[in-house]
Amino acid sequence: MTVTVPGTAPASLAGSAPPLALRGLSVAYAEAPAVWDVSFEVPAASLTAIIGPNGAGKSTLLKAALGLVPRLAGEALFFGAPLSRVRRRVAYVPQRTSVDWDFPASALDVVTMGLYGRLGWLRRPGRRERAQALACLERVGMADFAGRQISELSGGQQQRVFLARALAQEADLTFMDEPFAGVDAVTERTIVDVLHGLRGQGRSVVVVHHDLDTVREYFDRVALLNVSLVAAGPTGTAFSPAHLRAAYGERHGALAAALAGGPP
Amino acid sequence: MTLPFDLVIVGTAVMVAWACTLPGLFLVLRRQALLGDAISHAALPGIVAGYWLSGGSLASLPALVGASLSGLLTVGLSALIARSGRVKEDAALGLVFPALFAAGVIAVSLNYGNVHLDLDAVLYGEIAYTPFRPGWLGLPAAWVLVGGMGLVNALFVGGLFKELRLSTFDPGLARTLGFSPRLLSGALLTLVALTVVAAFEAVGAVLVVAFLVVPSATALLLTRRLGTALGLALGAGLSASVLGYVVALALDASITGVVAGVLGLQFVGALAAQGLRARRVRGRAAPQG
Amino acid sequence: MSLSPADFFTDYTLRSIVLGSALLGLVAGTLGCFSVLRRQSLIGDTVAHAALPGLCAAFLLTGTRDTLGLLVGGGLSGLLASLLALGILRYSRLKEDVALGVTFSTFFGIGIALLTAIGQSGNAAQAGLEGFLFGQAAALTAGDVARFAVLGALALGTVAALHKELQLSLFDPDYAAVQGWPVAGLTALSTALTVLAVMLGLQTVGVVLMAAMLIAPAVAARQWTRSLGGMLRLAGGFGALSGGLGAALSLALSPEGGAGLPTGAVTVLTATALAVLSLLLAPGRGVIAGWGRQRQARARLRRELAGGRR
């Protein structure tokens, strides 16, 4: 089911194919399945949280959709096409801890990397790219840190730099892996504002999320995962105590359901 | 009493394999697999100093002590540099051991430029000569030295297996539980340095480095259980020693080289087995429909 | 040999040695940045050891100690070993150090077996083959220097052209893959260039010391700069400096009539000295600057505590 917000979707989003459609996606590391037969769609102009207990395969699902880990079965379609045909419309914000922050680069250098895809082979980023990157740093409140060595940034600031890099891509669909993990309140607020801004432009974001407290406030859709998909859909219906108990198990499920604001 | 050549050589190889595997498994888990190579090179200045102090006998105790000391110096200096936070562990090690080796090379060329100090014999000791070097109680020197180190390692790893496992996987928890991970890893690395020196004097650096890394890597491909991995690695070292010796005799090739080759083949076999198993699991597990 | 500075400009042999060593330092220093940043610093050592079976095979095939043949043979087996290590990293859970350790000890073992076989055949040129492994800068000729220059320019030109691509795949491989860059190919390319640098260096500084020529200039350069471009250029400069200076020092300091000071060893000690000085003295990242900042901060906080603020 695709929900289009009239008048706000960019021209590129015209057409009926949803930004993301997962069909029977499965992944196995070594022996045990990590993600099992997951199918759901992400409509245009939506913010989707992927939630579930530790080890539920949330990050793995993201990586499998993006082709970063081998799939056992299933497919992921982006705007109705395989990723290789629409890479420019898809952005990815990896977990902050997945890179070496002692790498010799400034905040601006990292954001400029978001424009490399558009530049193509051999062409170097120039003044125009730097200006675009700076504008993106501005949007996450980090313009003053443009020349700062990335190792000197706090965790929250590093996360905002990563977000700015994704913004530079001007993608219609953005994946974020645990962007709220261990960040300060200012960063969390900034990220949420940026996400809502993107949705207002008719773009979609899929976020691996941990904090059940904030799901209702930040996201309009959820995908509840525990290796296989428990529920997916609008927050109002999918983020229900029954589904949470099913995803988190009986013991933690009661707590999760309480956090979600429903009856225990 | 003289032991048969075959027994001495194969026995030495197995002792080196086991003495190296015991601490080697933990080196592999701690991302320090290349430490053995580094120590075997960095030992040179210590050997030269020992040679100089003892007035010119290579296989003597002073050379052994000197080599051990410079091995320990490598471990200590690279840890110190890495702890400054400016350099990663691998680069710190790569900064220290070539510098020590270079110092050794210069010391050799300055002091013994006219005397023939056979560097190759020091660095690449030859296992085929072990039967000709008597040690103690009629046992070959290599057996006394390497066997002794192996025994110390076995006592250390056997006695502190639980503590080593904990401090390898979760140093923070180990510290809060009152085990000192720093003390443990210091003791482990000291044993590695001593083992490398004792063993390369007998069989050469190549085989030592291979035994420190390859059997453990092979075992860890096949299992994630530490105890099982140790057993598998000891078995791999034993079979590679015996098989390598037999093949080397048949081909009239270097024993060291063939044993290292067999270890490599075992690793490739484990890698293939792991790949096949993963594929089989996938084939069986893919959801229908 | 007693030398005056002018000799370095007029003496044909000296010029070749110094220029050749400096060129090696330039290429190795630049390419070393990639392996240091990828946490594969010891790949230089690995490749250098893994070249042995290729060197021996080339020698057995051609029967001569022709430099080019040996370089190609050694390069191919070094490249094979490092690609195998990359493959092990990709298809198993083992870490960098283990992947390098396994391939290098196996290859070196096979090389030793081949070397022994050559020794048994009683070929006189075998001694030369071993000299190759320990490095002989003194044997550098003008032809070698020209060869270094061409291959070095090729390697550095590739790095310059693909700077952006290599940077991205080094810093954030997953992100680069999602953008559609061929990360595995780019990694293999930078590894192949490193193998090339090692092959050039084998002749000059030898197997063991080659590791330092990749690592020390990169470590030194990292202390002074905040960008990859700056690090690459500085590391090249530090490498060239230690190569040239090391060669010149070893020639100038060699005792009259005695055996010469080994060029490779002096070069490596020069590079290490530069790295240690940079680690200690660099502003910002330097250890001493760090102590200073920490002391000032502590003193300020103590004053604030005493003043009852906070």
Can you describe this structure in just a few lines?
The complex is a heterotrimer of chains A (264), B (289) and C (310). With 264 residues, chain A is α/β, with parallel strands linked by helices. Chain A contains nine helices and nine strands.
Helix and strand arrangement:
The complex is a heterotrimer of chains A (264), B (289) and C (310).
Chain A: E1 20-29, E2 32-42, E3 47-51, H1 58-65, E4 73-78, E5 90-93, H2 107-112, H3 116-119, H4 127-139, H5 155-168, E6 173-177, H6 185-200, E7 204-208, H7 215-218, E8 221-226, E9 228-234, H8 235-238, H9 241-259
Parallel strand pairs in A: 3-7, 3-8, 5-6, 6-7
Antiparallel strand pairs in A: 1-2, 1-4, 8-9
Chain B: H1 5-29, H2 35-42, H3 44-53, H4 61-83, H5 89-111, H6 119-123, E1 134-136, E2 139-140, H7 141-159, H8 161-169, H9 171-176, H10 181-203, H11 205-222, H12 226-251, H13 255-285
Antiparallel strand pairs in B: 1-2
Helix pairs in contact in B: 1-7, 1-10, 1-11, 1-12, 2-4, 2-5, 2-10, 2-11, 3-4, 3-5, 4-5, 4-10, 7-10, 10-11, 11-12, 11-13, 12-13
Chain C: H1 7-10, H2 12-37, H3 43-62, H4 67-91, H5 96-120, H6 126-134, H7 142-161, H8 163-171, H9 173-178, H10 183-205, H11 207-222, H12 228-253, H13 263-281, H14 287-306
Question: Overview of this structure, please?
Answer:
Chain C: Keywords: Cell membrane, Membrane, Transmembrane, Transmembrane helix, Transport. Chain C: It is a multi-pass membrane protein. The complex is a heterotrimer of chains A (264), B (289) and C (310). Chain A is of the alpha/beta class. Chain A is 33% helix and 22% strand. Chain A has a 6-stranded mixed β-sheet, with helices on both faces. Chain A starts with 19 loop residues before the first strand and ends in a 5-residue tail after the last helix. In chain B, helix 1 runs parallel beside helix 7 and helix 4 crosses helix 10. Chain B has 13 helices and 2 strands. A two-stranded antiparallel ribbon of chain B has the order 1-2. Chain C is an all-alpha fold and 310 residues long. Chain C has 14 helices and no strands. Chain C is globular. The interface between B and C is large, with 60 and 64 residues.
